[in-house]
Amino acid sequence: MNNYVITIARGFGTGGKEIASALAKELGIECYENRILTLASEYSGYDEKKFVAVDERLRGGILRKMTKTHHARPQNGFVSDEQLFEYQAEIIKDLARTESCIIVGKCADYVLKEFDNVVSVYIEAPRHYCVKRIQRKMQVTATEANNLIESTDKYRAEYYKYYTGGNYWTNPVNYDITVNVERIGQELCKRLVKDCLTEKLGVVIK
Questions:
Q1: pLDDT tens digits for 160-192?
Q2: How many domains, the chain?
């Protein structure tokens, strides 16, 4: 493969998505996150609204209660939680085979663990740093920001653990690079990812 993929997992409020978007722009490649749902809808033939509904249901806490009964094959237009993940995984793998890009979230590091053209990154920061960023960006109180961080990161951890068969989302051994963005800043974070692309995959960055 001549193309490469950067996967980015991030704690809520770290600015990981912002870093991913800026890095994609600098590298001249696409950044995928929510668009994965659109592509999965096109791939499967299901209405995107059904996929969004499943995604929102997972975010609402259903993931914790999932049992085998939720995973039946589609009937009458029903899309199960696991089917959504499988469709997303196929899209992620297809992207990894065909183009250079950045994929944010979606367990992409795990989905692409057998691919040799991937650099996986985990971005984290102390709670106080994330709280201040969320307060500034979303115009909420410190208490509200803390609650958002707790609920979002809990969802991400449960999602990752379930779909990876028990792996821990924050475990640094899952990734090539784990960074504390408060300590090194966004610019150095992007530079480290670029350096890893060059050292690990031989990517020449202009």
A1: 998 898 899 999 999 999 999 999 999 999 999
A2: 1
